[in-house]
Write a structure and sequence with these properties.
426 residues, alpha/beta, 15 strands, 31% helix, disordered C terminus
Length: 426
């Protein structure tokens, strides 16, 4: 399949420029541009009159988008979409100033039950959810397990990711094993150390075989300590997995300090890190993945020091943290708004954060940018100015999404799941 797409403006994000204060020119601004795709890769990109010289066949589909700005497909570097059930009652409780009614173990219970029929779980619940994210421009998705909390269920979740990672109607997924997400119900009396022992013995050794690329853990006071997380992550690294970690999200707990010492690829959240942690993160070239929708949802009194990280030469990604309990936000367009609102990012810095920075946190070579030979993943945004990116929010500004060189249909989709076998459309 040959596809030629013309647009008013293209931003390639094919750059090694520093993120702090980056301009759209530095991000690769092309006026009156075009992209030529052969199959799932880009074969030419540049000024329309130059690109059209490479068209060598009459059998070409042409998409003329002179009212749109094309940017790379968004990369969401922190998501938890593999769950069943919803936690709206927890949201209502928070609004009343009460403790959440259900909590994470309710999601674990619902997910374990749904995994008894893994095909229906995927087709009826997960796939529509991922399609919704793709329809809003997310073409690459870091996808965590973590709602089974036992080896068989966690491995099944990884297998489902791998089984469906070539589905053209879904984002490309990077599987992350998040066994240390919370204390499993079976270990409530034995405690966190024994659960970490179990994961190291029963789950981590074969996580890579089941498809995991990354290991992650929730290092937070009340969840897993730095010492417990260190043991878990070292075992994961020895088993061939790359490392990323939830750090100091809701309270300070020396998590980032531990993560820096281990040399992880990404530290996520980081709302309560110290100045010395900022220095270590930047010095070691670790990407900070911040989740502003979560900060807003939880009304957290402290937020990640994004501007300090950037001004000291660091790299910051914006991620949705999509999950049922603390961030039911599936759109990186909305996350870009929160990134500008809460952290003072410019439009160009925010675009960098959901493309190049996010891809770097996942060690993805050609994701989050547009270049010859790279993946034909891009989004046509119906905005009139580049500076509008992250300004308008609450809707979907993606007029078209091209994923793997194909035009993505924008169907009617479910946000959260109804009971299996029922339909709940939006």
């Amino acid at each position: 399949m040959t596809l030629l797409v013309r647009a008013k403006t293209i931003v390639t994000c094919d750059t090694d420029a520093a993120q702090c204060g980056v301009s759209f020119d530095a991000l690769g601004h092309i006026a009156n541009g075009a992209i030529l795709c052969e199959g799932d890769h880009i074969t030419a990109i540049g000024k329309a009159e130059d690109v059209e010289k490479f068209v060598t066949t009459e059998n070409v589909d042409i998409l003329d988008l002179q009212d749109c700005i094309i940017v790379p497909g968004f990369v969401d570097a922190h998501t938890h979409p593999l769950f069943a059930g919803d936690r709206e009652p927890d949201f209502a409780s928070r609004l009343r100033g009460e403790k959440p009614q259900l909590g994470m173990l309710h999601t674990v219970e619902q997910t374990r039950s749904a995994l008894l029929e893994p095909t229906r779980f995927w087709d009826d619940i997960i796939a529509p959810r991922l399609q919704l994210m793709l329809a809003h421009g997310t073409t690459t998705l870091e996808t965590k397990t973590g709602y089974a909390l036992h080896a068989p269920g966690e491995h099944t979740l990884l297998e489902l990711i791998v089984q469906h990672n070539d589905d053209t109607h879904l984002p490309h997924m990077i599987p992350t094993f998040l066994g240390a997400h919370a204390l499993a119900p079976e270990f409530q009396l034995e405690g966190h150390d024994r659960f970490i022992d179990y994961l190291i013995d029963q789950a981590i050794p074969t996580a890579k075989v089941h498809g995991a690329v990354y290991a992650d853990a929730f290092c937070e006071p009340g969840f897993f300590t730095p010492e417990q997380t260190r043991r878990y992550l070292i075992a994961a690294r020895d088993a061939g997995l790359r490392l990323r970690v939830h750090c100091d999200e809701m309270a300070f707990g020396h998590a980032a300090e531990m993560a820096i010492e281990l040399g992880v690829d990404a530290v996520d959240h980081c709302n309560y890190i110290r100045e010395e942690d900022v220095g270590g993160i930047v010095e070691h070239g670790i990407v900070t993945v911040v989740c502003p929708a979560t900060i807003s949802y939880l009304d957290l009194p402290q937020k990640a020091p994004v501007r300090e990280l950037l001004e000291r030469g660091g790299t910051v990604a914006l991620a949705s943290d999509y999950n049922p309990g603390t961030s039911p936000c599936f759109s990186l367009q909305t996350v870009a708004y929160f990134g500008r609102k809460l952290f003072g990012l410019t439009a160009a810095e925010a675009l960098y954060a959901v493309t190049r920075s996010a891809a770097r946190s996942l060690h993805l070579g050609d994701a989050g940018m547009l270049r010859v030979g790279g993946a034909a993943d891009f989004v046509a945004l119906q905005i009139s100015s580049l500076d509008e990116f992250g300004w308008q929010f609450g809707g979907n500004l993606a007029k078209h999404v091209i994923h793997r060189g194909r035009l993505v249909a924008l169907p009617r989709l479910r946000v959260f799941d109804a009971p299996l076998g029922m339909t709940s459309d939006v």
